[in-house]
């Protein structure tokens, strides 16, 4: 699947994606894998995921969600949800209503997830 197909019918999601993708590109080399349900970013490991809630949920939902796996529960960001996916990984879900929701705290955590180095909680 290509990026235009992934974001077909979701123009607001696409606008936010462009900003997120620019931030992720600035982290260093990575690969974006696009499936029907998500975009997964990988360097030496998976470090970020993007998905469109409007594909699956009814009502008022954020245009885009950024999910970041971390080895701890982060309290520096207002997360929609944090889920323990295994004893060493907590998936942090951040609703992105606008590109400004990608603040410096979220960018810092993306950088941490990209590097694979846990930072202080």
Q: What is the topology?
A:
Elements: H1 3-6, H2 11-27, E1 31-34, E2 39-42, E3 46-51, E4 64-70, E5 81-86, E6 89-96, H3 104-115
Antiparallel strand pairs: 1-2, 2-3, 3-4, 4-6, 5-6
Fold and architecture overview:
The mean pLDDT is 93. This protein has one domain. It has a 6-stranded antiparallel sheet. A hairpin with a 2-residue loop joins strand 5 and strand 6. It is built from 3 helices and 6 strands. By secondary structure, it is of the alpha+beta class.
Short descriptors:
121 residues; alpha+beta; six-stranded antiparallel sheet; 3 helices; 27% helix; 29% strand
Overall average pLDDT: 93
Radius of gyration, CA atoms, in whole angstroms: 14 Å
Query: Sheet bearing the most strands, described?
Result: 6 strands, antiparallel
Total helical segments: 3
Helix content: 25-40%
* Sheet with most strands: strand arrangement: 1-2-3-4-6-5
- Which structural category do the helix and sheet elements fall into? alpha+beta
How many domain regions? 1
User: Multimeric state of these chains?
Assistant: single chain
C-alpha geometry:
globular
The sequence of SSEs as H and E is HHEEEEEEH
First CA to last CA: what distance?
Answer: 37 Å
Uncertain residue ranges: none
Strand residue percentage: 25-35%
| Total beta strand runs | 6
């Amino acid at each position: 699947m290509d990026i235009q197909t992934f974001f077909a019918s979701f123009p607001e999601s696409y606008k936010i994606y462009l900003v997120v993708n620019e931030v992720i590109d600035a982290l260093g080399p990575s690969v974006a894998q696009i499936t029907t349900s998500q975009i997964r970013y990988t360097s030496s490991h998976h470090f970020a995921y993007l998905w469109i809630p409007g594909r699956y949920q009814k009502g008022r939902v954020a245009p885009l969600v950024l999910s970041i796996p971390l080895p701890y529960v982060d309290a520096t960001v207002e997360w929609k949800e944090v889920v323990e996916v295994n004893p060493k990984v907590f998936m942090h879900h951040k609703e992105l209503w606008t590109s400004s929701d990608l603040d410096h705290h979220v960018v810092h955590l993306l950088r941490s997830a990209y590097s694979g180095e846990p930072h202080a909680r």
